Automatic annotation (TrEMBL):
Species this chain originates from: Alexandrium catenella
Region annotated Disordered, chain positions: 233-266
Pfam families, A to Z: WD40
Identification of the protein by name: Uncharacterized protein
Length: 266
């Protein structure tokens, strides 16, 4: 028999103006079962036709299955996570493997701090064991590993920063909102701000995203429901105290806005 066709598992666009260059060619990275592809979109023709593209491809080492990828905020690096906990760091232009970071537990998702954040670039790696790893991208040092104890060993399926870099949201067994702040040593800490029960559907949360303009949060679940949350001023509603809770100051609770089924779902 012939070779099995490649399966695309994830893709990400490079940040606009990467490397400080205005008008940089739009770039898309995509991860298949055997290759890392970088596609440069050069725009449509004068008649407004479909954009043309050029593609660079690199075969992946025959190691553990890769599960997720993301660009760093500067656009210079592409990071790929794998089932064995490793994080591969690739040069976005050269497509050479620069580093292989070793961690524990399969990686499920990434979030990169935005350029507007008031701290040096960070990479958050969500794991299959409910952990969030905080990596400092300038030196690729693991600064911290944060775990949400009530989530047990459930995987973190998706995470996302707010436009300011002040907030991080994650979904796994629970929908959690974290406050990102520097400690006295200059290391980035993630303090649990709020854990929301019944955030969306009853069957598994899978995806989360924050809108840059106003911090609206969209949460999707496996049963076809999509929840939209907004932020309100004032202290969050009372909850059982937990050692991982953040200080009471400057908290902004979230209010559930709307949950709706997706087309084709019951």
């Amino acid at each position: 028999g012939g070779l099995a066709p490649a399966v695309w598992c994830c893709a990400a666009f490079a940040p606009a103006g990467r490397g400080g260059r205005r008008g940089a060619t739009p770039q898309l990275a995509a991860l298949s079962s055997g290759h890392l592809c970088v596609i440069e979109l050069t725009g449509g023709g004068a008649a407004g036709g479909a954009p043309s593209s050029s593609r660079r491809t690199h075969s992946l080492p025959g190691l553990a299955q890769l599960t997720c990828l993301a660009y760093t905020a500067c656009g210079s690096w592409i990071v790929c996570g794998s089932e064995d906990g490793h994080i591969q760091v690739w040069g976005a232009q050269s497509l050479t493997l620069e580093r292989n970071l070793v961690g524990e537990g399969a990686r499920r998702c990434f979030a990169t701090s935005p350029p507007e954040a008031e701290y040096e670039p960070r990479l958050i790696a969500g794991g299959s064991d409910s952990s969030l790893q905080v990596w400092s991208t300038p030196g690729w040092a693991l600064e911290r590993v944060v775990v949400d104890p009530p989530s047990g060993r459930a995987a973190i399926h998706s995470c996302s920063f707010s436009a300011s870099g002040t907030w991080l949201v994650s979904v796994g067994k629970h929908f959690c909102v974290w406050r990102a702040c520097l400690d006295h040593r200059g290391l980035l800490d993630l303090c649990l701000h709020q854990r929301l029960e019944g955030a969306c559907g009853a069957i598994g949360l899978r995806a989360v995203a924050i809108r840059a303009q106003d911090d609206f949060i969209a949460v999707g679940s496996c049963d076809g429901l999509l929840g939209v949350w907004i932020r309100e001023e004032g202290p969050p509603p009372p909850r059982d105290p937990a050692p991982e809770a953040s200080p009471e100051a400057e908290r902004h609770p979230l209010r559930h806005g709307r949950t709706c089924p997706l087309p084709g779902q019951r």
